[in-house]
Amino acid sequence: MTFQRARNEEQRAVRRRAILETTSAMLDEMPVAEVTLNELSRRVGLAKTAVLRYFESREAVLLDLMDDRTATWLAELEQELARAIDPGRSTAERAEQVADVLSRSLAAQTVLCDLYGAQGGVLEHNVSVEVVRRHKRASLGNLAVMAGLVQRHLPEIGDRAELFCLNLLLIGGALSAYTSPPPSLLAVYESEPELAVHQIELRTALRLAIITSLVGLLPRS
Question: Which residues lie closer than 8 Å to 152 by C-beta, 6 or more apart?
């Protein structure tokens, strides 16, 4: 892919979208930690200095991508919840259904979980105040959408829905670091299975975290 110099805002938007899509494709092949500006610029067909005209750093690209991927996932989650939750069930039963959907859906978003895992310690560094401001506004918007989806199917959670959703995303990010063990650790687990007793399966761990959170946040009947 080779670009001519962008001469108007529409062309700049096309360049930015190409950079984000290329980064997204890279993350389907490698973890966040391995994404570099050099490889990104090579794949997108722009010089590294040209990429930096559209995004001020690698972290700025990844923050924008995280916001985009979150919005896309929430649109899918809305449909998944609508299909799975029975409004005629009791609070406890609907909480179980919500936990099933959220754990299955978020566990399938391995790239998004990896991005959330890197957010606080990596991605929100090496970026300007303006980039962080834009990212936080997008994050708060996505969090409000997610909280609204949970409240729609579990209204008993009330205004605690946003805290629940924030905790879930942070837990998903933290757990994801442990769900793809390196070859050395896999070799240990294979040679001594008793050491693998705490090996994490993301969906199972997320479901337990969700149920535990809901028990504490939902009113007791």
Answer: 81
pLDDT, residue 154, reads 97
Type of residue found at 49: T
Residue 111: how many other CB atoms lie within 10 Å: 18
Phi, psi dihedrals of residue 49, rounded to the nearest 5°: -65, -30
φ/ψ (deg, to 5) at 163: -65, -40
Structural tokens at position 156: 């008993």
pLDDT in tens, 8-51: 678 888 899 999 999 999 999 999 999 999 999 999 999 999 99
Phi-psi region of 158 (alpha: psi -120 to 50; beta: other; left: phi over 0): left
Q: Which helix (H) or strand (E) holds 80?
A: helix 58-84
Q: What is the dihedral of CA 126, 128, 130, 131, to 10 degrees?
A: -20
Q: Is 75:62 a contact under the CB 8 Å cutoff?
A: no
Give the pLDDT of residue 200: 87
Write phi, then psi, for 194 (nearest 5 degrees). -65, -20
Q: pTM for the full model?
A: 0.90
Angle, in degrees to the nearest 10, between helices 9-27 and 110-118: 100
Q: Which domains does the chain have, with CATH numbers?
A: 1-55 (1.10.10), 58-217 (1.10.357.10)
Whole-number pLDDT of residue 4: 53
3-state secondary structure (DSSP) of residue 143:
helix
C-alpha–C-alpha distance, residues 40 and 49, integer Å? 12
